[in-house]
């Protein structure tokens, strides 16, 4: 039996009341803003790492003819990083690590090369070297540590006019990537006079042989900065000497790189 037309149906009234109560109590879930931001940051980091790998592999030089980015292995292999939880984790690295790469006396001139890593970027560090800006259109993620190369010739540090942080670069902690090479001296952008070839090679390189134009060779072993992946070797050049080639070898004495861009 149905309700009279002039009176509301009690079933309909109950349904309407229940729907209104449900609509009043329902609150939309908050947007997952934190998750979205985390994903965005992860994607940006991945793009930055991919771009940095391309730049280091493709770019042949920066800052003129005396500084070069090297791919290290010469065959496209990436430099391996220590596994997580290794004995040299960031927490185990001292606030400052220093290691002498090479030095001595050549032709009556004293020379030395030292690597320094500051686990945290010093407060008075002004920023990246303006002479070597990042490629146009890139915005690499900032690093957390500072790696410095101190080259001293005749008792005077190369590029000391640039201040205490000249020769330093921001890197991504103790296990970052910084393969590069350069000729360093006091005169004419290191194209003449007494110079030192300093190379931070790939992880597989253990020694290098420099061949001089006109004959003669010099050999240097690779020195590691303790507790880090950073490593280097250094070879002095007397005034008038020029480089024909630099060959790098691994632990099994296999040649892994042949560089001739120093001509």
UniProtKB/TrEMBL annotation:
Q: Does the keyword Transmembrane apply?
A: yes
Renumbered to this chain, region (Disordered) spans 74-108, 122-143
- Which key words tag this protein in UniProt? Membrane, Transmembrane, Transmembrane helix
- In which domain of life is the source organism classified? Bacteria
Q: Does the keyword Transmembrane apply?
A: yes
Name the residues that span the membrane. Answer: 50-70
> Which protein is depicted?
Uncharacterized protein
Which species is this UniProt entry from? Wenjunlia vitaminophila
Source organism phylogeny:
Bacteria, Bacillati, Actinomycetota, Actinomycetes, Kitasatosporales
């Amino acid at each position: 039996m149905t309700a009279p037309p002039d009176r509301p149906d009690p079933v309909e009234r109950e349904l309407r009341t229940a729907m209104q109560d449900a609509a009043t109590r329902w609150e939309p879930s908050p947007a997952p803003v934190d998750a979205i931001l985390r994903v965005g940051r992860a994607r940006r980091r991945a793009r930055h790492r991919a771009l940095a790998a391309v730049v280091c592999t493709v770019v042949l030089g920066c800052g003129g003819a005396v500084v070069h980015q090297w791919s290290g292995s010469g065959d496209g292999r990436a430099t391996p990083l220590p596994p997580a939880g290794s004995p040299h984790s960031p927490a185990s690295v001292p606030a400052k690590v220093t290691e002498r790469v090479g030095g001595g006396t050549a032709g009556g001139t004293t020379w030395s090369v030292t690597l320094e890593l500051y686990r945290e970027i010093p407060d008075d560090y002004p920023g990246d070297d303006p002479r070597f800006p990042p490629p146009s259109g890139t915005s690499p993620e900032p690093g957390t540590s500072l790696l410095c190369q101190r080259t001293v010739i005749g008792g005077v540090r190369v590029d000391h006019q640039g201040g205490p942080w000249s020769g330093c670069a921001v890197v991504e902690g103790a296990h970052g990537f910084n393969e590069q090479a350069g000729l360093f001296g006091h005169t004419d952008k290191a194209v003449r006079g007494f110079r030192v070839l300093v190379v931070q090679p790939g992880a597989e390189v253990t020694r290098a042989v420099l061949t001089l134009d006109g004959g003669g060779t010099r050999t240097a072993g690779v020195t590691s900065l303790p507790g880090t992946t950073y490593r280097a070797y250094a070879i002095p050049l007397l005034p008038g000497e020029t480089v024909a080639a630099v060959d790098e070898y691994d632990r099994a004495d296999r040649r892994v790189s042949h560089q001739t861009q120093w001509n």
